[in-house]
């Protein structure tokens, strides 16, 4: 059986610093909820953390807490909204990269990719990763589909744009090296048991001894 992985999505953490779209608050979590999830996945190698939307909380809240736990993550940014109110700017992107985090594309302006004319599709799917690549100084070939909304046309465009990994939002575990992978979104109403339930859906997860040791060191405050 191919290796199984659990992909998680974080959207925003804490108090939003911009007006949210209708319903968007349902995918924001508190700092406490976020920390509970991080603490639960420390030491589990086959959990992947991803962040969508390029909210300012990626750098201000998430980054220090990831580093504290020696975790890495992939941040899917909106190329056309960098530096807007409540979103991370170019300095923030650099900070993420310098800290060892990866950058992927979430498109240009958070649109439904199934409903675009050719010109906008090119901007969203092909030009956004090019701009991000320039910014981070290396190719950006992973994409997270806005709203998890894709169809055959969207996937075809993503392949043509040279994406080597595409993330949706379909829930459940994924195959570690698959081109298209599902993710599980943190939501405003998750409790401490949520992450255990998500992990239970993926048999064969294991804890690596080194990372567990790192966690114990951290907990002991050494
Ligand atoms: Zn999004």
Key structural traits:
six-stranded mixed sheet, 222 residues, alpha/beta, TIM Barrel
Task: Explain what this protein looks like in three dimensions.
The chain has helices spanning 31-41, 57-68, 90-98, 118-136, 152-160, 194-200, 209-219, and strands at 4-10, 12-13, 28-29, 47-52, 74-77, 102-105, 142-144, 165-167, 174-175, 180-181, 184-185. The chain has 222 residues and is of the alpha/beta class. It has a single domain, classed as TIM Barrel. Strands 1, 4, 5, 6, 9 and 11 form a 6-stranded mixed beta sheet that branches. Strands 7-8-10 form a 3-stranded parallel beta sheet, with no helix packed on it. The radius of gyration is 17 Å and the shape is globular. The model has no long low-confidence stretch (mean pLDDT 92). Bound molecules: zinc ion. Zinc ion is lined by residues 52-53, 106, 110, 146. Residues 52-53, 106, 110, 146 line the site of zinc ion (ZN).
Q: What average pLDDT do the residues reach?
A: 92
Query: How many domains, as an integer?
Result: 1
CATH superfamily: Glycoside hydrolase/deacetylase
Identify low-pLDDT runs.
none
Strand/helix succession: EEEHEHEHEHEHEEEEHH
* Gap between N and C termini: 39 Å
Q: How does the major sheet shape up?
A: 6 strands, mixed
The beta-strand count equals 11
Total count of helical runs of at least 4 residues? 7
CATH architecture: Alpha-Beta Barrel
Q: What share of the residues does DSSP label as strand, in percent?
A: 15-25%
Helix content: 25-40%
- Given the C-alpha coordinates, what overall shape results? globular
CATH fold descriptor: TIM Barrel
Which ligands appear in the coordinates? zinc ion
Structural class category: alpha/beta
